[in-house]
Specification:
With 201 residues, the chain is an alpha+beta fold. It contains 4 helices and 11 strands. It has a single domain, classed as Nucleoside Triphosphate Pyrophosphohydrolase. The protein is globular.
């Protein structure tokens, strides 16, 4: 079966074919475990996945009065819902380098979105834990303001990433948060709430 979807911003065609699942044995970014422990005197077991911590950045384009988001195909989301050919996310990436967290965030903004944001302009909002029942990995959330003078290339990610940029006007963002037809992450929604609370929008 071939499914074709047209993205909003650049009419980029996404075609997914021959979608299959396999038991995971040799892994690169995640490692499945069976955990055994004693809780209140009773033996318990749990299945979990160990994965990298990550960074995510809420980018506000001031002249456009918009959030800059990324759209990309996420196979696990598609596996569970074939109507979701791409997700809306904050610019983000795993922490697989021995570098300062803010530097990793800066590099992700460059790679995915094509903007150069000085490290000193990145504001760390907080951190939280994702997928607490499966991986329990930690995500560090940042905020930065951008404009077109900071644009250095078109973005789109590296290696096997296929990322499309999406500017969401602030005036539409609250409706967007509650639109269940749009696949999005809890981190994105929390970051929006932080922005509204911090700046009174």
């Amino acid at each position: 079966m071939v499914i074709i979807c047209y993205l909003w911003s650049k009419n980029l065609q996404v075609e997914i074919t021959d979608f299959r699942t396999f038991e995971l044995k040799d892994t690169k970014y995640i490692h499945p475990y069976r955990i055994s422990y004693v809780l209140n005197g009773k033996r318990r077991e749990w299945e979990a996945v160990k994965s990298h911590d990550s960074v995510a950045i809420l980018l506000y384009h001031k002249p456009k009065d918009s959030f800059l988001l990324v759209q990309q195909f996420r196979p696990p989301v598609y596996m569970n819902d074939k109507t979701k050919l791409f997700t809306y996310e904050l610019c983000a990436g795993i922490m697989d380098k021995n570098k300062d967290i803010a530097v990793i965030a800066q590099e992700e903004i460059d790679e995915e979105c094509g903007y150069h944001v000085p490290v000193e302009n990145l504001r760390q909002i907080t951190s939280f834990y994702n997928n607490v029942g499966v991986s329990g990995s930690r995500q560090y959330l940042f905020y930065a303001t951008i404009d077109d003078t900071m644009k250095i290339h078109e973005g789109g990610g590296v290696h096997t990433e296929q990322i499309e940029l999406f500017y969401l006007p602030i005036k539409d963002s609250k409706h967007f948060m509650y639109d269940q037809t749009k696949a999005k992450t809890p981190g994105l929604m929390f970051a929006f709430y932080w922005f509204f609370d911090r700046f009174g929008r």
